[in-house]
């Protein structure tokens, strides 16, 4: 069993690993570059490693936290003028309540729990239109999948769907020793900037998601097999896409072309 930190024992069910390295904390805060008065929300503030410097920089901070003990600590330490606490699961939180007031300027930050990182990223993508920028710490393997290019081993559904909605960049790695308790994996910082509406040229995003999921569902099978019932040989020929290729060879633009070709005319 790991030792408590600042009187709090990390809970495995919440995926808690607390950032304690001050140099890494300063580096993350510099990357976020929050300005006074800028609307910002932190997901999973934990013991407040990023919370205090974010409040100092912005003046006020929204946080989403599920752990009642940590919520109580936040309420003791900060005033209502400094912090607004949204109690509950980030996977169920309506970030639209914040983006509406932020007029597209909201920054979202957090050390995302490994156990819910992928579904949480997809949940946050639904609010991209109201967000200026997202900066997250995630398992390095997840970040590598997010920014991967076609034909790379890490390239898959997560990367394609997030790359459709965001411009993304991996900023730097964070070693296990920067946390308590130390995780068994290396983490990384990633920045996501929502794309402009003019860049989102897919006519049916639900169909795009269906096609991408099918293409990567059985990675060793060819597109002719994985997209059977979605795109026939004539369609492949029209689009100039080899039906004998596999999903990982297609670019985001290729997937969008397939989705637009298959979409029911408006």
Radius of gyration: 20 Å
Q: And the CATH topology of the largest domain?
A: Rossmann fold
Main structural class? alpha/beta
Strand order of the largest sheet: 4-3-2-5-6-9-7
The top-level CATH class of the largest domain is Alpha Beta
Report the sheet-strand fraction.
15-25%
CATH superfamily of the largest domain: Vaccinia Virus protein VP39
Portion of residues within helices: 25-40%
Enzyme class: transferase
GO molecular function, one term: 16S rRNA (adenine(1518)-N(6)/adenine(1519)-N(6))-dimethyltransferase activity
Keywords: Cytoplasm, Methyltransferase, RNA-binding, rRNA processing, S-adenosyl-L-methionine, Transferase
Protein name: Ribosomal RNA small subunit methyltransferase A
Explain this structure to me?
The chain has 266 residues and is an alpha/beta fold. It has two domains: 12-199, 3-Layer(aba) Sandwich (Rossmann fold), CATH 3.40.50; 205-262, Orthogonal Bundle (Helicase, Ruva Protein, domain 3). Helices cover 36% and strands 19% of the residues. It contains eleven helices and nine strands. The strands form two sheets. The protein has a seven-stranded mixed sheet with strand order 4-3-2-5-6-9-7. β2, α2 (51-58) and β3 form a beta-alpha-beta unit. α8 (205-217) crosses α11 (252-262). The protein is elongated and about 65 Å long. The relative contact order is 0.11. The model is unreliable at 1-5 and 7-15 (pLDDT under 50).
């Amino acid at each position: 069993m790991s030792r408590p930190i600042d009187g709090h024992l990390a809970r495995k069910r919440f995926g808690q690993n607390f950032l304690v390295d001050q140099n890494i904390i300063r580096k993350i805060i510099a990357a976020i570059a929050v300005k006074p008065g800028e609307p910002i929300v932190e997901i999973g503030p934990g013991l407040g490693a990023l919370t205090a410097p974010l409040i100092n920089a912005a003046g006020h901070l929204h946080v989403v936290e599920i752990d009642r003990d940590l919520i109580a600590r936040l309420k003791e330490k900060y005033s209502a003028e400094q912090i607004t606490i949204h109690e509950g699961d980030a996977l169920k939180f309506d970030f639209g309540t914040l983006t509406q007031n932020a007029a597209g300027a909201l920054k979202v930050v957090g050390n995302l729990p490994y156990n819910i990182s992928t579904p949480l990223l997809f949940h946050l993508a639904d609010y991209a239109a109201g967000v200026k920028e997202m900066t997250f710490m995630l398992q390095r393997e997840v970040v590598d999948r997010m920014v991967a290019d076609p034909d790379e081993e890490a390239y898959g559904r997560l990367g394609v769907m997030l790359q459709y909605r965001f411009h993304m960049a991996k900023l730097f790695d964070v070693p296990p020793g920067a946390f308590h308790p130390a995780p068994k994996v290396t983490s990384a910082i990633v920045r996501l900037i929502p794309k402009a509406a003019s860049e989102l040229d897919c006519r049916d995003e639900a169909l795009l998601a269906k096609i991408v999921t099918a293409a990567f569902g059985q990675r060793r099978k060819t597109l002719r097999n994985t997209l059977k019932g979605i795109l026939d040989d004539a369609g492949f020929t029209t689009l100039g896409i080899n039906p004998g290729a596999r999903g990982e060879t297609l670019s985001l633009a290729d997937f969008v072309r397939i989705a637009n070709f298959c979409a029911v005319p408006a």
